[in-house]
UniProtKB/TrEMBL annotation:
Chain segments annotated as transmembrane: 41-59, 71-90, 111-135, 169-192, 204-224, 236-254, 275-299, 319-342, 372-392, 398-416, 428-449, 469-485, 490-506, 512-530
Keyword Transmembrane helix on entry: yes
Entry protein name: Amino acid transporter
Pfam families: AA_permease_2, AA_permease_C
GO molecular function: amino acid transmembrane transporter activity
Species assigned in the record: Chitinophaga arvensicola
Entry keyword Protease: no
All copies of domain Cationic amino acid transporter C-terminal, residue ranges: 492-535
Keyword line: Membrane, Transmembrane, Transmembrane helix, Transport
């Protein structure tokens, strides 16, 4: 096994020719229904981004950061903005399904593409398990105890009393989260029967929840007590950054838009617009919501699972709280739908390249969707949601997404410059980072020198040092990229995207890095046991 074979790349010219001919390595892709336009893609982005984040994890972030959490949404949006521009560059030049997986195959080669594809499985599938369980919680609140408790609970969170009260089969208590499973079945059905039906459903849900969120913002501002905004950052900037994982979890969805490239009417023009428009709209809404939350009640009261409903109960408006619960059910349904659409299309691309069995790339003869991959995705999400209660998935999903963003930004740096073309498409502007990147790094090092020195302090021993390992890796990467920027005049936007994403990764606990590393290790075992030998590039070689 040579190192060259591990980094064999797909030709950009071949991918573009396949897309133009409606073929990809012999698999028919031209049959997919090309019905998505800018408004549909923007709606899909909003559907994926405004979900569990705005209805649940924003409370945890506000508890740590106070009113200053609004700045964290700005920082995260800027970070995602750099990545979105890089995604847009790729999406316009490589207008096929697969998202970051396909982009990495073109630039870094097969091994990196497999790793990022495996990371995206973690992002989409495990993230959706958490969303399904969250959806069940909101749904059960609306029904107010109509469904028996043993049908809306999980084994790992059930009390001894519930275990005793539940029906038993062969001495084993039957405890299921049936609503979580049923919503996954419904959403998987929508994703199975076609992009046209999924598009209509997503557009409707997005319109409804944006109206509700705007209503909440307008009404909420009348109940804001400005005294609650002081101090703005009660726990300092480090307190604001404690919510980075919860906040970033809210933003991970915009990359799912890029998986629908082959179902876009004009992917080279519309995909970039859809991603960027959705990112801007969602950022404005998140900032306004965070200011309303922290203004209505003291930030110390916001460590709850349903912060939006909670604050309106505190000002004696329970009917708005009920409206928010209804909106939360709709919002999380739309997130499920977008991710259930995205995951099978990544598997479809990996299957076409021979890295997964051929069945994953098979299109339904009538619906023109990756039918087998869609069903498998439904099972992988639905069955765990029926029995489990996962609690660390926001951190784990965020670290996988940030990793994907870093590779996409890095891929743009080594993507060959395009010759002049008559096709109208998005092109990321080139800004010479030769002087700007070193200048920014030096400036930030001066401004935050106390915090940086504290991380390298010898006090505390190994117990302190081990939690700073991600930061040490970030420091090495920053020095290396700064040197390359100065010597090779690297493009500024992708460099800032890589560094900002890597920094956000350092704010995620070390235990999640370890779990993520184990997940990648399992993926590498599958690659070397199956995918390496069955790769279509291996057959050509």
């Amino acid at each position: 096994m040579s190192s060259n074979s591990l980094f064999r790349k797909k030709s950009l010219a071949t991918i573009l020719k396949d897309a133009k001919d409606g073929l990809s390595d012999g698999h028919e892709t031209g049959g997919m229904h090309k019905v998505l336009k800018v408004k549909d893609l923007t709606a899909m982005g909003i559907a994926a981004v405004i979900g569990a984040g705005i209805f649940s994890t924003i409370g945890e972030a506000s508890f740590h950061g106070g009113p200053g959490v609004s700045l964290l949404f700005v920082i995260t949006a800027v970070t995602c903005g750099f990545s979105a521009l890089c995604y847009a560059e790729f999406a316009s030049r490589v207008p096929v399904s697969g998202s970051a997986y396909t982009y990495s195959y073109v630039t870094f080669g097969e091994l990196a593409a497999w790793v990022i594809g495996w990371a995206l499985i973690l992002e989409y599938a495990i993230g959706n398990i958490a969303v399904a369980i969250s959806w069940s919680g909101y749904f059960n609140n609306l029904l107010r105890g109509i469904i028996p408790e043993w049908l809306v609970s999980n084994y790992d969170s059930a009390s001894p009393e519930l275990m005793a009260a539940a029906p038993h089969i062969g001495g084993i208590p039957i405890i299921l989260n049936l609503p979580a499973f049923m919503i996954v079945v419904l959403v998987t059905y929508l994703a199975y029967v076609g992009i046209q039906e999924s598009k209509k459903s997503a557009n409707f849900m997005v319109a409804l929840k944006i109206l509700v969120i705007l209503f909440v913002i307008v009404v909420g501002f009348f109940y804001v007590n400005k005294a609650n905004w002081h101090p703005f950052m009660p726990n300092g900037f480090s307190g604001v950054l404690k919510g980075v994982s919860a906040v970033f979890f809210a933003y991970i969805g915009f990359d799912a838009v890029s998986t629908t490239a082959e179902e876009c009417a004009n992917p080279q023009r519309d995909l970039p617009k859809g991603m960027i428009y959705s990112l801007i709209i969602c950022t404005v809404l998140y900032i306004l919501i965070s200011l309303v939350l922290t203004g209505m009640v003291p930030f110390t009261n916001l460590k709850v699972n349903d912060p939006l409903a909670y604050v309106f109960n505190q000002v004696n408006l329970p009917w708005i709280s009920y409206l928010i619960s209804v909106s939360a059910v709709v919002a999380t349904t739309s997130v499920l739908l977008v991710f259930q659409i995205g995951q099978p299309r990544i598997w479809m691309s990996m299957s076409r390249d021979g890295l997964l069995p051929k069945r994953f790339s098979k299109l339904h003869p009538r619906f023109k969707t990756p039918s087998f991959a869609t069903i498998v995705t439904g099972l992988i999400v639905g069955i765990p949601a029926l029995f489990l209660n996962l609690t660390i998935v926001t951190d784990l999903t965020s670290i996988g997404t940030l990793f994907a963003f870093i590779l996409v930004c890095g891929g743009v740096l080594i993507l060959p410059r395009e010759e002049k073309t008559t096709v109208k498409r998005f092109q990321m502007p080139y800004i010479n980072g030769q002087l700007i990147v070193p200048g920014l790094v030096i400036l930030l090092a001066i401004l935050f020198h106390n915090e940086i020195l504290a991380k390298f302090s010898m006090e505390g021993g190994w117990d302190v040092w081990k939690h700073n390992i991600p930061f040490y890796l970030f420091t090495v990467a920053t020095v290396s990229i700064t040197f390359l920027s100065a010597t090779r005049k690297l493009s500024l936007i992708p460099v800032l995207g890589m560094l900002s994403c890597f920094y956000l990764m350092t704010e995620i606990a070390l235990k999640n890095w370890i779990v993520f590393g184990i997940w990648l290790g399992i993926g590498l075992a599958i690659y070397f046991l199956y995918s390496y030998q069955n790769s279509k590039l291996a057959a050509k070689a």
